[in-house]
Write a structure and sequence with these properties.
About 55% of the residues lie in helices and about 0% in strands. By secondary structure, the protein is an all-alpha fold. It has one domain. Helix 3 crosses helix 5, helix 3 runs antiparallel to helix 9 and helix 5 crosses helix 9. The protein is globular.
């Protein structure tokens, strides 16, 4: 008799092979795309592509979500009925938020959210991310965050707005950290 194979592990590995197919093509990385891959594991350039919603990243994420939800491929994403499309878009924006929060965490602007530890495959299969309430989840700002004092004092904007307001600046700074250094 051969080795005992975990059916759950086998199914997860097979789903990861299908779900990450476009990620492998658009963002090559040996051993990077598997059932355990989380936002925190991604190289900076790949994370930035998702956080900035590049065309390739959007296509890859649509496909990823469709596979994880058992709805086919990314080409059929926008042709879903209205209720399904709204649910899928909630999941899409949730995952994009998580990529942006990971950018901010790498800059030291926010506490790394617990969702950053969760494998992407597991997150995309979690029905709760497709609910509107999931979009209100934001990590706590750290002292380096531009709105930290405002959040700490409890004045002004609510935390989700305050944290997201700094996304463009975080993306700019993160992009600068990835730019090759020129030596004179």
């Amino acid at each position: 008799m051969g080795d005992v194979i975990s059916l759950h592990h086998f199914k997860s590995r097979r789903m990861a092979e299908r779900a990450f197919r476009l990620w492998r093509r658009f963002f090559p990385g040996e051993g990077l795309w598997n059932e355990g891959t989380a936002w925190k594991d991604l190289p900076g350039a790949v994370l930035l592509a998702f956080a900035s919603e590049s065309d390739q990243a959007q296509t890859a994420l649509y496909d990823f979500i469709m596979v994880c939800q058992g709805l086919g491929h990314g080409g059929a994403f926008e042709s879903q009925d209205l209720d399904t499309l709204c649910r899928l878009l909630n999941g899409y924006f949730y995952l994009i938020d998580q990529a942006r929060f990971e950018v901010m965490a790498r800059l030291g602007w926010v506490e790394r959210p617990a969702a950053a530890e969760k494998p992407l495959l597991q997150a995309a299969c979690d029905p709760s991310i497709y609910e509107t309430a999931a979009l209100a989840e934001t990590p706590a700002p750290r002292p380096a965050h531009p709105g930290y004092e405002e959040d700490r004092l409890g004045i002004g904007m609510e935390r989700p707005v305050l944290v997201r307001k700094a996304v463009p600046e975080a993306m700019r700074r993160f992009r600068e950290t990835l730019a090759p250094q020129t030596v004179c």
